[in-house]
Every structure is written in structure tokens, then in C-alpha cells.
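DM from R.C. (forwarded with permission)

"hey, sorry to bug you on a friday — could you get me a structure for this? deadline for the figure draft is monday and I only need the backbone to look sensible"
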Amino acid sequence: MTGKPLVCSIRNPHPITIGDPRAEFSSGCAVVDVTFPSTKSVDIGEITFKNNYTALLSIKLKVREENEKGETTLTWVTGLKNVQLMPDPHCEDRAQSYFRIKREQLLAPPDNVLSVRLVLQQPSPVWLSFGLDDIKFYSPKDESREVREAMVSYVPPCHICMCLHCVQDIPPVEEISTSLQQMWALSETARINQTEASLGRFDVDGSYDINLLSYT
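My reply, with the result:
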């Protein structure tokens, strides 16, 4: 179970250039800055995104820390460093796959975070552009809520056995389907062979057969 989505502002990838930005040379590196609108820092529990031809990913976290004197400082820490998203930068394998990064996978705890910087790298000149799509941040999951939901959804073992017993008494789906098809075929045959003329019980060509009548 994931936490609640965090409201954030995500900028478009900003390519890092070397020398004259008007030159056609590409460094194969871009930066995506993510800021949170609230003045307070946030705790990140999970990050999800869809890859868009990014080969390597690094994550920088701007966190708020307090020293021994109680003074607050802002520090950049490394969350991830050169994590490989594409096995081969020149091939499309996992180029558009979805990824999920949990807080346990980060090198530093993502607590008291003010902003996030995603560093994208694509060394292959095959692709004209690269980036990340559908980026979402989630808060840490509520452990107490997870325990409550587990208690509500708990089913005693005896009830589970009863449910399995009931399922076993139901005929197989194939047998039910075959029976329904046979009933449908019989009904269609009866509908096609039915006649509009009214049939009497004992009349033959408008007359009664004396042998079919009984005396009382």
C-alpha cells in the first residue's frame, strides 16, 4: 500500500550544455527540478515514473537538517547515483517502462525534503530526446492504517473452508455451458417446427374419428 500523492511542481527537462548553447553538441545530460508548494518539508515514501529513453538516473535531495546547536541547515544529499534504467542505451529495451523507487532503495532517508533534482543521462546519440514522464511522489504509508485494514479484511479459517466447499459443489463452467447450448438448440428446433394452425384434440380434417371418442 502506498501513501498519499504529494503535490509538487515538476519542470521540463533542462539540458546541460557545454560551451555555446547554440551549438549542436549535446552532453547527453538533463536535469528535472521538482519543488513542493508547501513551506514545510515533506517525507517521501515512493517515487514512480515512466521512462522516456533515459539510460541512467541520479537523484539529489535538498533536505532540512538541524545540527547539535539547533541551527537549521539546507543540504543536498544523494538519493540515487547512476542507476541503470536501460540495459543498453542504444537499444529500446525498458526505454518506455514504468519504474517504482521505494524509500528503502535510496542511499539517504528522504525525510524533511524541500526539493528534488533528477539527473538524467543518455550517452547514446541514437535518440533525439529523452526524459521521464508521469512523475509522481507519494508520502510514506501509514502503518497503523495498514494494520487496521488487515484486521478488517481478515477472514477466519473456518469461513475460508466453507467457501471452498461451496465452490467445489458448483458444476464446472464447461458442463453448464454445454447444457445451456443444448437447451438453446432444442428451443430453436421447436420454434422452427411450430405451425400456426390450431390443433384440436380429436378432430381429423375437421371431423371427429369415432374411434378416438370415449363414452361415459
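R.C.: lifesaver. The chain has a mean pLDDT of 78.
me: no worries. The first strand starts at residue 9 and ends at 10.
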